[in-house]
Design a protein that fits this description.
The protein is of the alpha+beta class and about 130 residues long. It is about 30% helix and about 35% strand. It is globular and about 45 Å long. It starts with a helix and ends in an 8-residue tail after the last strand.
């Protein structure tokens, strides 16, 4: 599998996740937010809550389940990026927020991919 294919698949998965979230009443604030610590795939808001969403896309399980790709190292990088994002908001930064994970399973262009949404995974996953 080439890097280009993985990027294309990942971009498709993020679009599927964005569309799903919007259908659930979320507003996407940012996609692919970069900090020196890494990247946050999606940042969204709903009912005044702030959500940081990691998206994992799989066309098969050759590289394991999407959930297995979220390890302590990945979560630490996400937390550092979240801190950077919140600092950029200054005094407007909310004090309550959560991390969600969305797994998209299917092939690019699949009209009905499987979407698994794990809400508020919290620091117990570390």
């Amino acid at each position: 599998m080439t890097r280009g294919y993985r990027k294309t698949l990942g971009d498709w998965g993020e679009q599927v996740a964005s569309t799903y979230l919007e259908s659930q009443g979320y507003e996407i604030l940012a996609r692919n937010y970069h900090s020196r610590h890494g990247e946050l795939d999606l940042i969204a808001t709903k009912n005044k809550g702030l959500y940081f969403i990691e998206v994992k896309t799989r066309s098969n399980h050759a590289y394991g389940l999407g959930e297995e790709a979220i390890n302590a190292k990945k979560l630490q990088a996400m937390l550092a990026s979240i801190e950077s994002y919140l600092e950029s908001l200054g005094s407007a930064a909310p004090t309550e927020w959560q991390i969600d994970i969305i797994i998209v399973e299917g092939r690019k262009g699949d009209p009905a991919p499987t979407i698994l949404h794990y809400e508020n995974i919290g620091e117990e996953a570390l």
